[in-house]
Amino acid sequence: MAATPIQPFSTEETQRILQHLQQPAVFMNMTRGWPVLHWTAEHLSACLGEKLIRFRLGRKGDVNTPLFETQCSYVEAKLVHFLSWTQGQSGTDVGPFSEFSSSEYWAYADYKYIAILFQDQPSMFEDVKWSDFGFEGRNGRESTLWIGTEGANTPCHLDSYGCNLVLQVQGRKRWHLFPPEDTPKLYPTRIPYEESSVFSQVDVLHPDPRRFPDFQRARVHTVTLQPGQVLYVPRHWWHYVESVDPVTVSVNSWIELEADDVARVSEAVTKAVVCAIKSAPSDDNADDWLNPTEEGVASHNENMQYVNLAVRACAQRQKALCHGKLTRDPRDTRPAKRDSSGQIRKKRDSTGDSVPFSVPFGPHLISVRCQQEDSPEAREVTPKDLRFKSSRNGACTSQEDTVSSEAAGRSEAAPAVRLQQERRERSPDLTQCRARDCADETPENSSEDCEVSRHAIITTNDLLDCLVHPDIIARVTELLLERHTGSHRTTAPSQL
C-alpha cells in the first residue's frame, strides 16, 4: 500500500494562511495523491457514459464586448461526442456538435455540480479532498466541475458570496484577476442578471478605451494555472477565466464566509429591484436580461419574502455576535454560490494570534502579484522584490511557476470605522454610469460627439446600473438593517 503523500502545509497551517491571505495565491504540491487528478475528459467520459451534459458554445474571434451566457448557443451532448468534436475526427459521431465547426466555436460545460452529475456514483465525491485545506468533510459533493476547449471562457465578474478554491486537473487555464478596489474601473452591471454574480461591461482582453476609459487604470493580476495547482481567489476579486489548451478540466469549491450574511441582504434587494423593473412592459425592455443559469423570474411577493428573510437572518446573527452568543448548527450548509454548500471560515480578526503572521510565500505558495511589465525586475525577480507593484498603464503580471515570495500583501482587514472612507475612495461618481465619453476631449472624441452623448436616451438598463450600483445597494442594505434592528450603529460592508 502506497504511503500517503506529505503535504507542504498541515490543515491547521493552511487554514491560518487562508485567514490571512489578502490577494490571490497558488498552492503548489497540495494535491499530491488526490484521485481527482485522474479526472481527465476521457476518464470522465468513461464514468458518465450515456449521460447528457449541457455545453455552452461561443464563436471564436476578437470583439470589444463580453460574450455573456445569454448570447451563447447550447447543446445537450455526451462527453464522447465532445471529445470526438474537439479532436476533429472525420466520420465519427459528434452528436449535436455537428452543427458547429470546432475551428470557429469553443465549447464549455461549466457550473456542473458534482453532487448532481455523479449522484448515482457517490464514491467519486471522495476523489476531491478539500479536507487537506482544513475544511473537514468537504469533498466533491460541495464542488463544481468545468470542462472546456481552447478559448472557452467565463465573462469577467465577481462572486458576491464567499471565496473560491480552484483545482486545475487537465490542461491550463489563464486567470485575469482584479482587486475589489478597482470595481469602478470594471464598470459593473447586473444585466444579464444572475444571483451572486456581478458582471463587468468590459471585454478585458480587448477593451474599448472610448467606452471604458478608466479600465486602463485597472490593476490586472494574471496567472496560468497548471494541473495539480490550486488557486485561491479572495472575496470579491474580479476574474476573467479562459482555457488555453485543447481540453481543460477543473474543479472548484466556493467557501462561505461570515460576511455573506450582509451580502445576502444586498443580493435580495438587487434581485427585487432588477426583477421589478425588467419585468415591466417597456419599449426597451425586450432584451434577454435573465442569465440561463437562473430558473425563472420570481414574483415581487416572492422577492420581498427573500428580502425579509435575509434581513432577519442577518440581524439575528449580528445580535448574537454583539451578545457573544453566536452558535451555528454544524449541519448548516447554506449556499455560498448557487447551491454549492460551504463551511464557515473564522473571521480574520478572530484567529487569536498574539504575534503578527507572515504568509509563507515560497516554492509551495506563489503570490499572484501585480508588477511592472516593462521593468527589469519583471523578468528577473528575487524574493525581496516580491511586492504588489502597479505598472505605468495599470497592467500587472504574476510570477507564475518560477517565483517565490516572502510575506507580502496588505495588512489585516481595515476596522469598521474605515469602511465609509474606503467606499468613498473607490466609488465612481454616479454620472460615470455608462456615459463617460466626454471625460477627455480628443480628436476622436470631439465636442460634437460629446454633445450627442449628453443628450443620449437613458435606457432602462442605464437606470438599473445606477439603481443597483454597488455603493447604492450597500447603503440601502445598511438602512434596512438599521430599520429592522432599530439601531443606527449597524455598518454593512460594501457589496463589492
UniProtKB/TrEMBL annotation:
<feature type="domain" description="JmjC">
    <location>
        <begin position="100"/>
        <end position="270"/>
    </location>
</feature>
<comment type="function">
    <text>May play a role in cellular stress response.</text>
</comment>
<feature type="compositionally biased region" description="Polar residues">
    <location>
        <begin position="391"/>
        <end position="405"/>
    </location>
</feature>
<feature type="compositionally biased region" description="Basic and acidic residues">
    <location>
        <begin position="420"/>
        <end position="439"/>
    </location>
</feature>
<dbReference type="Pfam" id="PF13621">
    <property type="entry name" value="Cupin_8"/>
</dbReference>
<dbReference type="InterPro" id="IPR041667">
    <property type="entry name" value="Cupin_8"/>
</dbReference>
<feature type="compositionally biased region" description="Acidic residues">
    <location>
        <begin position="440"/>
        <end position="450"/>
    </location>
</feature>
<dbReference type="InterPro" id="IPR003347">
    <property type="entry name" value="JmjC_dom"/>
</dbReference>
<feature type="region of interest" description="Disordered">
    <location>
        <begin position="325"/>
        <end position="450"/>
    </location>
</feature>
<feature type="compositionally biased region" description="Basic and acidic residues">
    <location>
        <begin position="326"/>
        <end position="340"/>
    </location>
</feature>
<keyword id="KW-0963">Cytoplasm</keyword>
<feature type="compositionally biased region" description="Basic and acidic residues">
    <location>
        <begin position="376"/>
        <end position="388"/>
    </location>
</feature>
<dbReference type="GO" id="GO:0005737">
    <property type="term" value="C:cytoplasm"/>
</dbReference>
<protein>
    <submittedName>
        <fullName>Hspb associated protein 1</fullName>
    </submittedName>
</protein>
